[in-house]
Structure prediction request, 227 residues.
Amino acid sequence: QKEVEQNSGPLSVPEGAIASLNCTYSDRGSQSFFWYRQYSGKSPELIMFIYSNGDKEDGRFTAQLNKASQYVSLLIRDSQPSDSATYLCAVLSKAAGNKLTFGGGTRVLVKP
Amino acid sequence: KAGVTQTPRYLIKTRGQQVTLSCSPISGHRSVSWYQQTPGQGLQFLFEYFSETQRNKGNFPGRFSGRQFSNSRSEMNVSTLELGDSALYLCASRAWVSGGDTEAFFGQGTRLTVV
Prediction:
């Protein structure tokens, strides 16, 4: 089992719709969770981080964390063509020596 | 505040050669991690250095090595290059605050092509 798993996609979403991305992790000791966006040929850039169970909203993005079920999700509301990218989930575990582990990423395509 | 700087941006090497990549973290950041990214394998963790000590290591052969200097700058070395080493190599730095590390910030990467 991979430490951090994501559906590779592509996730095809009509412009204006909500894109829902999921990520599951295996280390119960994980405590910090991050979402990165990576455009083709570019380096990943941080979108959001979440530490506590529940929802965290930032503009059109909402991160959701459920530690009991070991999953974290990202919602993109009012999706725009510029949101077309690969979204990487990253999980930090202090128990693993503050190791930051990335999932394989979900490719999102927003169609006009 | 300057971001994470990686040099060089592009590199072409021949099989069997060795290569050294450099990464300068954000000022004040003590953690530097290296990742290899290929189209089929995603973002693969190589190793992480914190205050000049290797803190974590991924599952890569010993041909891949790294080090960190007292100013937190880091270098990654790959010896006896193979065609399969062609990839985008990303460096990321993190700050250390009470309670642990912060989020990672990435450099622009070094695109290595082995011919």
